[in-house]
Queue: 2 jobs
Job 1
Amino acid sequence: MSSLARSSHLQLAAFALGTVGWILCTISMGIVEWRVWHVDNTTIISSGIAWVGIWKVCFISYLHVSPGYKEQFCHKFSGYDSSVPHEIYAAQGLLLIAMFMGLLGVTATIFALRNVYMGVTRKTLITHFFLVGGCFYILAGLCVLVPVSWNFYSVTHNQSIAFPPSYYMPSSPAAQEAGAAIPIGIVAVILLLLSGTFSLSYRFPATANTITKS
């Protein structure tokens, strides 16, 4: 194995971690379990549990359903709904940005590793791709960190949401807890930040035969 390939083991790990982190970011954005609300009134929310996500709110109801059957009702958030708190709208935008930046980070790392393992000894090209990939990974991780931390803060302080009547949701829960999306997001943040750090730590080996190109 060439010195060029041996110098990039950490960056190969960065690619693996960044890919997993990007996938987890996408998963956390898609699932509804960001906040789990426990409600006392089970007239409509039959299970006593509702899930508040960043795109919609869902709950299980037996209302207007045949005995022994249940149905999940979901209500999507509207872009013009003033009752939706700022942390939910912030999560929508930041996670979309994180998904895009994570994809760019993965792409840049793939190009850098391709050059390394194909023996293309262009120092500027390789280091720049790793640098760009690392920056995108870190920015993606920070974009995930903000909504995850903000929503977790809202959960721990049992903050209420003034849902309109059409949502069939109470304005505040009896209690609430963090849903699966928050720990998934935390893991995504850790992996993306580690991946960015590993990518930025790349040093071109002095023993490699470099080709200077503008």
Note: Helices lie at 3-6, 9-30, 86-117, 123-156, 181-200.
Job 2
Amino acid sequence: MGAHGSNLDDILEEDMHHWYTKFMKESPSGLITLFELKAMLEMNGMTEEASSYVDQVFFTFDMDGDGYIDFVEYIAAISLLLKGEINQKLKWYFKLFDQDGNGKIDKEELETIFKAIQDITRSYDVPPEEIVTLIYEKIDVNGEGELTLEEFISGAREHPDIMDMLTKMMDLTNVLEIIIRGQQQKKAVN
């Protein structure tokens, strides 16, 4: 498998029991539904964009499309978010941004996702419109108003400022913290 693959396997193996215990406490059935994920993230009062974003995250992680996130999908998601390589993350970002699944990201899709992320993180430093304009000015070299996967990946890699902005905006550490905090609160109540 190669040195990097086995290193990642070693890291995951160390944490595997921890993650499995956490997953099974939260979802004794061994499956997480979209409804359960939204409950974990305390989605009450969130905007429609934020709710739509969580839907998109869920469906991106539900790799087999059965309507559930099982333990293997859960570990794959955690692994990608915490330890994934740049290209893996960029492919995941692209899949997340491509809401209609047509293989291209248009400005509206990107702006919707960034608004949703800001609603969830409650971080409104830069207006989504400005972020989208910057990304398209630098990456959409053909001026089509849409980005293919190849354009998106090469553009992000060629422009460290965009890569840095995407990495910061797509950092879901706070989402994982909400899940963990929610699990700790449930333990305290029980």
Note: The mean pLDDT is 76.
